[in-house]
Write a structure and sequence with these properties.
Blueprint (H helix, E strand, L loop, with lengths): L12 H11 L8 H14 L3 E5 L2 H11 L7 E5 L5 H8 L3 E5 L10 H9 L10 E3 L11 H10 L2 E6 L7 E4 L3 E4 L8 E5 L12 E5 L2 H11 L3 E2 L13 E2 L10 H11 L2 H19 L4 H4 E2 L12 E5 L2 H13 L15 H4 L8 H9 E4 L7 H17 L1
Parallel strand pairs: 2-3, 2-4, 4-5, 5-8
Antiparallel strand pairs: 1-9, 6-7, 8-9, 10-11, 12-13, 13-14
Helix pairs in contact: 1-8, 2-8, 3-4, 3-7
Bound molecules: pyridoxal-5'-phosphate.
The site of pyridoxal-5'-phosphate (PLP) has 14 residues, from α3 and α4.
């Protein structure tokens, strides 16, 4: 039986043909495809500035650093996310405070965020501090409430949108709130890792409406170097390193693939939404509903992950193994970040009830645009066999 992964890239002939052309072009890196990809991202997401870089982690680091986050900063990060959301803050020397999540969605809990903010000493609020909500699994984080709390407490808001390009959600006050729109967060970050919506091999982007953040991210992406003169000036070759940055550049090859994939993002989203709707429909039936909950379905969900939640942790662990024995790969998204030994060193025994509950129950089952209906049926049949087996 063929292997069904929990996620994988979708590459077509067009991607291959554009990439092979790029291989023989004048520029393998820092050529015209970088700016072309950036302008296309700006247009797609309706933001003023996009700065592409070498990974989603680099995008988070660039966004935080460009927003002023430093070693005096405090950052509030939801406990259910990939470690990168917190790590990028540590790269700047800032302190991470983990915030709880809603146990049924994994999204940042506003109540817990308020409690975290209440604990911040007034003196600390004079620093550059961060709230980094994650639009987790493809659902938009409660950005409007996060923005309000950020403003009241003088915190900066950066959305980790690695899971949610194209996601939107209805809102009582604002009509619709979209991920990556630059309306609520100072910046949103994307990842172009192969399991994400837009694949560039590796890659990431900072999206923002703030010119200062964009200019700083551009400089920091390439060592903190500035080129003050244009081609027509006397010294067009001149450059100077203004601050300490990194090599977080994306290559032209990656930008070529990213651009080609961005052109298909609407199709990818439509396909993911169709698969999610099919999962939801079938999983609401017996015998599944006795043992599992499916994710709440919303029209604007971007379905990076399709996470079912088992009512029993032991059953979840056995299901993971059963799926694997049938050549189907599933995944646990995520182990609360505070449980990792690196973070335990600072926070021994720390636990958050919503994050623990989500972690114990969650299992991501296969979800990607190229997943075929008959493969999805195999996943469902396997789950049914497992549950009936007792
Ligand atoms: C929520 C989240 N943030 C950040 C990242 C980091 O992205 P990258 O792997 O491109 O560095 C990931 C990647 O898995 C992620 O899932």
């Amino acid at each position: 039986m063929d292997l069904i992964p929990y996620s994988r890239q979708s590459i077509n002939e067009e991607d291959i043909s554009l990439l092979s052309k790029a291989m023989t072009s004048d520029f393998l890196t820092q050529g015209p495809k970088i700016a072309e990809f950036e302008r296309a991202l700006e247009e797609y997401f309706g933001v003023k500035h996009a700065v592409v870089c070498s990974s989603g982690t680099a995008a988070l680091h660039l966004a935080y650093a460009s927003a002023g986050i430093n070693s005096e900063s405090l950052g509030i990060v939801p406990a259910i996310t990939f470690a990168a959301t917190a790590n990028a803050l540590r790269y700047q020397g800032g302190d991470v405070q983990f915030c709880d999540v809603e146990p049924d969605t994994g999204l940042i809990s506003i109540e817990s965020l308020q409690e975290c903010l209440d604990r911040v000493p007034e003196k600390q609020k004079e620093q550059y501090n961060l709230i980094a909500p994650v639009s987790f699994a493809g659902a938009v984080a409660p950005l409007a409430q996060c923005k309000q709390l950020a403003s009241e407490n003088n915190f900066i808001l950066v959305e980790d949108a690695s899971h949610s390009p194209g996601a939107f959600t209805p809102d009582d006050q604002e009509g619709t709130i979209s991920s990556c729109s630059g309306t609520h967060a100072l910046a949103s970050t994307l990842s172009f890792h192969p399991v994400k919506h837009v694949c560039a091999g590796e890659g990431g982007a900072v999206l923002t409406n703030d010119l200062h953040v964009a200019q700083k991210a551009l400089r920091l992406r390439s060592h903190g170097i500035n080129r003050p003169f244009s081609e027509t000036d006397e010294m067009p070759w001149y450059y100077e390193q203004e601050s300490l940055g990194w090599n977080y550049r994306l290559t032209d090859l990656q930008a070529t693939l990213g651009l080609s994939q961005l052109n298909r993002l609407d199709n990818f989203l439509a396909r993911r939404r169709k698969l999610a709707s099919r999962y939801n429909q079938i999983l609401r039936e017996s015998p599944f509903q006795e043992h599992i909950n499916c994710p709440p379905f919303e029209d604007g969900h971007a379905w990076h992950l399709y996470i079912i939640r088992f009512k029993d942790e032991n059953l979840r662990n056995l299901a993971f193994k059963y799926f694997r024995s049938k050549n189907i790969l599933t995944q646990v998204h995520y182990i609360p970040v505070y449980k990792h030994p690196y973070y335990q060193k600072q926070n021994q025994g720390f636990q958050l009830p919503g994050a623990e509950k989500f972690f114990q129950s969650c299992l991501s089952i296969p979800m990607y645009p190229d997943l075929k209906e008959n493969e999805q049926d195999r996943v469902l049949k396997t789950l049914e066999q497992f549950l009936l087996k007792g």
